[in-house]
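Forum: Protein Structure Q&A
Topic: Joint prediction for protein chains with partners

I've read a bunch of threads here and the consensus seems to be that you should model interacting components together rather than docking separate models afterwards. I'd like to see that in practice. Below is the full input, 1776 residues plus whatever partners are listed. Could one of the regulars post the assembled result?
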Amino acid sequence: MIEVLVIHGPNINLLGVREPDIYGHDSFDELNRKIKERGKQLEIETRIIQSNSEGELIDAIHGTLTWGDAIIINPGAYTHYSYAIRDAIAAVRKPSIEVHLTNVHGRDEWRRHSVVAPVVSGQIIGFGTESYLIALQAAKTLIEESHR
Amino acid sequence: MIEVLVIHGPNINLLGVREPDIYGHDSFDELNRKIKERGKQLEIETRIIQSNSEGELIDAIHGTLTWGDAIIINPGAYTHYSYAIRDAIAAVRKPSIEVHLTNVHGRDEWRRHSVVAPVVSGQIIGFGTESYLIALQAAKTLIEESHR
Amino acid sequence: MIEVLVIHGPNINLLGVREPDIYGHDSFDELNRKIKERGKQLEIETRIIQSNSEGELIDAIHGTLTWGDAIIINPGAYTHYSYAIRDAIAAVRKPSIEVHLTNVHGRDEWRRHSVVAPVVSGQIIGFGTESYLIALQAAKTLIEESHR
Amino acid sequence: MIEVLVIHGPNINLLGVREPDIYGHDSFDELNRKIKERGKQLEIETRIIQSNSEGELIDAIHGTLTWGDAIIINPGAYTHYSYAIRDAIAAVRKPSIEVHLTNVHGRDEWRRHSVVAPVVSGQIIGFGTESYLIALQAAKTLIEESHR
Amino acid sequence: MIEVLVIHGPNINLLGVREPDIYGHDSFDELNRKIKERGKQLEIETRIIQSNSEGELIDAIHGTLTWGDAIIINPGAYTHYSYAIRDAIAAVRKPSIEVHLTNVHGRDEWRRHSVVAPVVSGQIIGFGTESYLIALQAAKTLIEESHR
Amino acid sequence: MIEVLVIHGPNINLLGVREPDIYGHDSFDELNRKIKERGKQLEIETRIIQSNSEGELIDAIHGTLTWGDAIIINPGAYTHYSYAIRDAIAAVRKPSIEVHLTNVHGRDEWRRHSVVAPVVSGQIIGFGTESYLIALQAAKTLIEESHR
Amino acid sequence: MIEVLVIHGPNINLLGVREPDIYGHDSFDELNRKIKERGKQLEIETRIIQSNSEGELIDAIHGTLTWGDAIIINPGAYTHYSYAIRDAIAAVRKPSIEVHLTNVHGRDEWRRHSVVAPVVSGQIIGFGTESYLIALQAAKTLIEESHR
Amino acid sequence: MIEVLVIHGPNINLLGVREPDIYGHDSFDELNRKIKERGKQLEIETRIIQSNSEGELIDAIHGTLTWGDAIIINPGAYTHYSYAIRDAIAAVRKPSIEVHLTNVHGRDEWRRHSVVAPVVSGQIIGFGTESYLIALQAAKTLIEESHR
Amino acid sequence: MIEVLVIHGPNINLLGVREPDIYGHDSFDELNRKIKERGKQLEIETRIIQSNSEGELIDAIHGTLTWGDAIIINPGAYTHYSYAIRDAIAAVRKPSIEVHLTNVHGRDEWRRHSVVAPVVSGQIIGFGTESYLIALQAAKTLIEESHR
Amino acid sequence: MIEVLVIHGPNINLLGVREPDIYGHDSFDELNRKIKERGKQLEIETRIIQSNSEGELIDAIHGTLTWGDAIIINPGAYTHYSYAIRDAIAAVRKPSIEVHLTNVHGRDEWRRHSVVAPVVSGQIIGFGTESYLIALQAAKTLIEESHR
Amino acid sequence: MIEVLVIHGPNINLLGVREPDIYGHDSFDELNRKIKERGKQLEIETRIIQSNSEGELIDAIHGTLTWGDAIIINPGAYTHYSYAIRDAIAAVRKPSIEVHLTNVHGRDEWRRHSVVAPVVSGQIIGFGTESYLIALQAAKTLIEESHR
Amino acid sequence: MIEVLVIHGPNINLLGVREPDIYGHDSFDELNRKIKERGKQLEIETRIIQSNSEGELIDAIHGTLTWGDAIIINPGAYTHYSYAIRDAIAAVRKPSIEVHLTNVHGRDEWRRHSVVAPVVSGQIIGFGTESYLIALQAAKTLIEESHR
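Posted by a regular:
Agreed with the consensus. Here's the joint model:
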C-alpha cells in the first residue's frame, strides 16, 4: 500500500479559528478527517503531523527515509524563508507536493515567493481544504510514474 | 452539463517536438485526447483552443461570457508578462485555474514569477500532462461550490 | 477638417461588463457614441478602433501615416510593457495623447509605470469616459499649435 | 458659483525666465491671466497662489476646508518627494487635479515618479499652459458629478 | 483581573551577560522581577516565558486563546524574519505590543526592519528594561479600550 | 520642574477632521488639552507647537538649546524623508521620543521607513492620542536617568 | 541549397520613414532587395517575412520545422520582453542569429537587455543594413559546421 | 566688483555647537567673518544668508536674478532630497559651487548622494571651513571664464 | 585541556545519504569519529551536537558559557537567515569558526550570503570533512592567542 | 591599405588550453594565423596584440592615434567592469568592433553586461574564432563608410 | 619645502586630444606646466606621474611612504571600481585630494559613484584644469593643519 | 616534492606598515619567512610572488601550467571585482585556495562579496598570517586527494 506523509506547518492547527474569511470555516480536525477518508478511497495509507517548530518539521521530513513514499507539505509561513526545510526536502529525494489553502499570489507581496518551490515535484494552490485532497491523487500519480 | 474552456498558450502546440527532456514525450494531440476523455468521465463538456497570439488568447477568454463555466489556462511564456491576459481573466469573473506542465520554480529565475497568478482561483503546477487532468477535477469542485 | 484616430487597447471592449465599480457603468458603445458626438461639436472627424492584439494596435498606429492628424490611445494593460507600441508611436511622429479611464496611480503598483508615456505628447488620466472627451479638446489644441 | 483653488509649487514663478525651451515662453503673469479668463468663461471663481515653501502649500490646501470646491495643483519638484503635500490633499477630501506643463515622463528618470498621484482625482500632463485650462474644465466636471 | 502574557525571544535570557554596553547591566531575573512588580501595581496578572525556539514562541502565542488578554513580545532576532511568528500574532487577534530594549533603528541596517510590526497594535522601542514596564501600562489601556 | 517640548508635524492640526477612521475622533485641541493635563500630573512643564513647515520644525528643535529638557515629536509625513529634521535632533543632543498616532507599519509601504528613528532615544507607536501621554512618562524616565 | 528564413519584427516595415537619423535612409524594400541579392551570391535561398504581431512571428519561427536551415531575426522591441519568442526559438533548435540595425547598447537603458540573446547562436549588432548581410555569411558558416 | 551669494542650509547655524568632533570648533559667526575677509582680499562682494526652510533657500537662489554673479551653497541635509532646490539652481543659470564642511562620502550611506550635484558647476568637499574660502577663489575663476 | 564544541546544523545528520555527489560519501558517524580522533591528536577535548532545531542550536551556543573554549559550527541552511544564531554567537564571545563542507560560493546564489559570518572569528570553506579537522587546528591557534 | 588593430584581452592566450568545451579546440596561434590570412584576402593590414594587463590594453588602444584605421577588440573579462578601457575606446574615436568567441548571454549572469558596448560601433558575438573573421569584413565596411 | 605627488590616472594623457568639448582644449603638457608653476608660487615641490595601469598607480601611491607629504589624484575611470587604489590610499595615511576635470555628477550615472571618495581627505570637482591648481592650495592647508 | 605557488595581491607588501590594528604587526617579510618554514615542515616547495598589477597576477596564475601543483592566493581588493583573475584561476584548473588575513565579512559591505570564490576549491578566512599556514596544510590534502 502507498504511504504518504502529510505535514502541516506553523499556525495551521488554528484552522477554523484563524481569519476564517481567508482560510475557511473547516476546523483542523475536520481537514484531517477528510484527508484520512480520501486516502482510504485511493488506497493510500496516510500519516499526518503538525508542528510550529521548524526543527520538528525537518525531523519529520527526514523520517520519510524509513516510512513514506511521498510527502504532501503545507509549510505555512516557513514557505517564504526556510532554506533548512528546502534542504531537507531535497535531501530525502521523495516525490513531494507543496500545498496551500489560499491563493498565496493574491495576498501580500512576501507571500508570493516560495523558497521551497524549486525542490518539490509540484504545487497545488488555492482550493481550500480541497488542495490536500487533490494532492493525494497527484501523489499517487507521481509514485506510480516513478515505479515504472 | 458543465462547460470548461481549456486554453493553451504559445509554443504548447509543439508538445512532444519541443525539448522532450523537459516537457515530456506526449504529443499535443495526445494531450488534447486525454483532456477530452477525462472531461467525459467527469461529465464536463470541454472546448480546447491553442494560439501563439496574445490577442487571440484574450478573445478566447472573453468568449466565456457566452460559453464556459470555468477556464483552465496554460499561458506559456505569457505567464510572465501578459498583464493584458491577467486583466481579461479578472474581467470575465469565472472560476479559473492556471496550469503548467513543469515545475516552473525549478528552472530559470524569470519563470518563477506569474503575473496571472493573483487573479486565478488556483494553480496546478508540475505534474506533466496530468496537470490538466487534475485541473478538470478541481474546476468541477470550484463550479459546484460557486453554485451553492 | 481635423482627423483624430481613437485607439482602444485590450479588454476595453468589455466596458460596462468589467468590474463596473472601478471602470464605471457606461457601456463600450455608449463611450464611442459620446466620442463621435463630442468630435462633431469640435469639428473633428473621428475614427475609432479596438483590438486585443498588440500587432493590430501597431498596424493602426502606422495607419496614421495616411489618415489621422493626431492619436488618442488607451493602451490598456499594454501600457505597462509594450515597447513595440511605444516604438510605433515614436515612429509616426504625430501629436498623441495617452488616456486612462481610472487613476492608474491609485491602484496596483505595476499599473503606475507606463512605457508609452515618454513618447506621447501628453496624458489625461482618471476622469472616466470624460478622459477621452477632454483628450479630443487637447488634441485639437496640439494640432493647431503644430500648424503655427 | 464654483470655487477652484489653483496652486503653483516651487520655481513656477520663474515661468518664461526658466529654461524656455522646456517650459515655454509664456510668463507667469500671462499664465495666471489666462486661468482667470478661462475660469470666467466656465463660470468658475478662481483663486491662485504660488509658493516655494512646502509648508505654505500645505496651509493653502488646508484652506479649502473653508473656501474651494476643487484643487488644481502643480506641485513642481515637490511632486516627487512631498508625502506631506500628499497627506494634506488626502486629508481635505476635495476633487483635485495634478497638472504639469511638460511631459515629465520624457525627461529625467526621477521626474517620472509622483508621490502625489495616488491621492488626486486625475492628472493632466504635457500640454504647456493649456494643461491648466483643460484642468479647469475637468474640475467643473468632477464637481458636478460629485453633486449628483 | 487583567491577564498579560510577556514573551521573551531568543538570547534575551543572556541579559546582563550579553554585550552590557548595548543591552544594559540589569540581569534577566531582575527584569522579570520588575515586570511582576509593576504588574501588581497596575492590577495586571503577568505570566512570563522565554524560549530560543521559534516553534515554542508560536505555541506560547497560541496559548493566549485560553489565557491572556494581551501580549507583550520582544521577538529578539526573530523580529527580522519570522513570518511564522507574525502569522501567529495575527491569528489569535489579541491586543499585542512589540517591545525592544534598545533603539533597533540606530544599529545594523537589518535590525531596522520588523516583519512583525504590521500585525501588532503598537510598539515601544528603546527605553531599556523600562520598555516592558511602559508596555504594561499601554496594554492596560488597549484592553480597556477594546472592552468599551 | 522638568521641561518637555511637544512638536506636531504637518497635517496633525487637522486631527478629528482628517480620515477619522484612521486617526480617531479626538480633535487637535482635545489632544493638546490631554497633554497639558497629563504633564501637570507628572510635574512636567509642557510647551506645544505645530507647523506644516519643515524649516519651522527645525527652528523649534533648535529652540531646546535654551528651553526644554526633552523633545516629543510626531514628524508626520516628514518622518519618511526629512534628513534635515534628523540632523536637527542629532545636533541638539536632548533625550527625544518619536511618536505616531497609528501603527505606521500596518499601512502603506513608504510609511514603514523613518529617517528620524536612528537618532531619537526611543519610539512609541500606535496607541492613538495615548501615544503622546505614554511618551510624557517615558520622557521623564529618560531625563531622570541622564541626571544620574 | 541552404535555406535561411529572415524575420523582421515590429515597426521595421517603416524603415526609411522612421527616425532616419537613427535607423538610416535605406527603405525597407531596399533592405530586402539587398538581402535577396547577397543571398544569391552566397548560394542561400532566402525567405523574408515581417509582422508587427508577436503571434505571427512565433508562427513563422515554428515554420522552420518544415522549411529553413537557419533563422536570422531582428525582433525589434520584442527583443526586450518576448519570452514567448525566446521559447519558440529554443523549441525549433535551429542555428539562429539575432541582428540589430543600430548599437542598442548606446541608446535607452531598456534597449540594452535582450531576453532572446541566451537562446540564439550569435549576435550581429550595430552595422545598419549591413548587419543582415554579415548575418547571412555567419548563418552559412553555422550551418556548414553543424553538418560536419 | 564681483558679487557672490553664500547660502547656508539647515542646521549650519549651529556650527561649533553641533557635534564638534565632526564639524569642527569654529562657530558660525567665525565662519562668516572669514568668508567676508577672504572675499575682500579677492575683491568679491559677499552676501551671506542662512535658513532652515527649503522655501527660503529657493527664494534666495531666485534672488540672484537681480543680485549675484555666482552662488556658493552648502545645502546641508537638503543636499540629499531637495529636487526643488536643484530646479531653482538650474533655473537661474549662474555659476554655482556646492560646498560641504566634511567629507560626506566617509559617513552614512545616504550622505553620499547629492541630488543637487548634477546642476552645479563644481564641488568643494571636505576641507572644513576652508571649503568656503577655496570656493570663493573658484567662483572668481568661473565668473572670469564666463566673461571671456 | 582545551575544550571545543562542534555544532552541526540542520540536515547534516543525513551526511552520506544526502546528495553524495555534492556532500561526499563519508557518513555522519564517520565524520564525528574523525573529529574525535583529530581532537585527541591535538590535545583538544571535543563535544559534538547536531540538531535540526534553531532553538536547540542557540541553547547549545549558550552552553559554552559553562563548557567550551571555542565553537566550531556548520549552521547548514540557517547560515543564510538565522539572525538569532548570529546573536547567540556574538553574545557568548568565544573564538568561533564557521565551517562548510562544500564551496557554498560555487552553488545557488542564496547560498553565497552568510548572516553569521560577520560575528565569527574565521571561516573554513570547501574542504569536505577535512574542513572540520582544519578548523580544530585553527581553533587551537585562536585559543592560544587569546591566552597570550 | 586599410590598417586594423586586433586586441586580445586577458586569458585569451590560453585558447585551446582553457575549457575547450566552451572556447573550442583552436589554439591561440591558429586563431592569429587565420586572422592574418583573412586580412590578406580582404586587403587589410592586421596587427595583433594580447595582454593580461588592463593598462597595456589601454596603451594599445591609444596607439591607434598613430597606426590603425579601426579596432577589433575582445576585452575578455574586462568587458564587464573596465570603464578605463571604455574611456580609451571613446577617446580615440575610431571605428571599433567588440567580439566574443562564445555567446556570453547564454552563460553566467555577470557575463551578460558589457560596459564597453555603448562606445563601440558594433558587436559580433558567439561564432567562435569565426567572430574575428566576420569582424574583419565588418571593419572594412565601417572604414569605407566613414570615408564617404 | 612641502612635497606633493600629483597622480594622473588612465586616459588623462590624451587631454586636449580626447573629447575636447567635455575635457577642454588644454593639452596634457600644458596642464602639467601649470601645476609646476602654481606649485612654485605656493612653495610646493611637485612630482607628476601618469599611468594607464592600476598596478603602477598603486606603486606610485606606495612611493609616498618615502617621498610626498600629500597626494593629489585624478583616478580617471578607476575612480568608479578600483578598490585596490582605495586600499592603497588608506594604507599610506597621507592627506589626499581627489580631483576631476569635469562635473562627474552631470554625466553618465556610473560616473557619479566614487569608491575612492570615502578614504580621501577632500574632493575638488568640475573646474577643468583649475581643479588641480585649487587642489594644490588645499593640499598646503591640509599639511599645515596636520603639523599643528 | 609538492609545488605550491603563493600569490599576494595588491597592498599586501605593506603588511605591518598598513593599518596594523586591522592587519596585525607581522611584517611582509616575516609572513613570507613563516610560509617558507611551514612549507619545509610539510615537504612542500613554495614560491611566493607579490604584485599590485592585475595583469601580473594573471601571468603568475598562468605560470602554474608549467610549475605548481596548487595555488594559494590572497587577491586583496581584486577579490571584489577582478573577473579576469577569476577566469585565470578557472582556466588553469589547479587546486586553489583563497585566503584572507582578516574576517572580510566583519568589515565594509563591499568586502563581503568575492567574485573569485565560485572558482576556487576552498577558502580560509580570518586567522591573520596563520591563514596562509593553514592553507598550506589544506593544499597538501587537496593535492593528495586529486592524485588518488
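Chain E has a mean pLDDT of 93.
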